[in-house]
Amino acid sequence: MTKPTELDPQSLPRHIAIIMDGNGRWAQKLGLIRTLGHKAGVDSVREIVRVSRKLGIQVLTLYAFSTENWKRPKDEVSTLMNLLKTYLEKEVQDLCANNISLRCLGQIDKLPPDVRDVLLRVIDDTSKNTGMVLNLALSYGFRSELTKGVQEITRQCLEGNLSVDDINEETISNHLYTAGLPDPDLLIRTGGESRLSNFLLWQVSYSELYFTEIYWPKFREKELIDAIKQYQVRQRRFGKTGEQIKKQET
Ligand code: FPP
Description:
Elements: E1 15-19, H1 23-29, H2 34-55, E2 59-66, H3 74-97, E3 100-105, H4 113-125, E4 132-140, H5 142-158, H6 169-174, E5 186-189, E6 208-211, H7 221-232, H8 242-249
Parallel strand pairs: 1-2, 1-5, 2-4, 3-4, 5-6
Helix pairs in contact: 1-2, 2-3, 3-4
């Protein structure tokens, strides 16, 4: 197994965001029903949360359920909701023991009341933890996030609390679910697809993208470390030249 020490601790991504894809295909490949893929996916969630914390990652954002996922068959949606609820109930102690604070990105009010209650309780119980932020994107879609942000900004303008000329990029960032958090440095998508699927489209403007064929249930410690290693050999230029960046580093 790859040792975390092989990573450069000085250039770890502060924020890692993950599109966890491939649960269904992993299960189907083994002749299992899709929902067993989601169940195995929860084990990957546990491991990736644990390893991220151990490595010192500040923010981990997991795309667990999109606004579009409500269109899936009813029994698959209810399995996902039950898995989520069980995960939260079981994990709250571990999150606290590891100083991890849970947050949610997305339309909490769309979740079934029992799931929402547990979620809000865990968010509250872990709110004082400072070691790592774990964001679960639930009933999340960027277009809906942006729409909500635009509505809030417009309301402030209409109420006279904000001038149109004062709206800048920071104003917009501050009206997204991720307000106050650093943008993702590294965006990982498992399961072989190369698309962003309405995930954090503003926030990933300068993220390094890492696409892997590996299905989410098989994405574990070694795979996360491989992704971070790949991130660490990339040069992030933010529009500048390579020479400017080298000069900046010396
Ligand atoms: C995509 O795989 C995955 C999802 C829609 C859900 C991800 C959920 C989990 C990993 C489990 C619950 C989460 C938590 C945080 C406890 P897919 O079904 O679209 O895979 P496919 O593309 O192979 O069909």
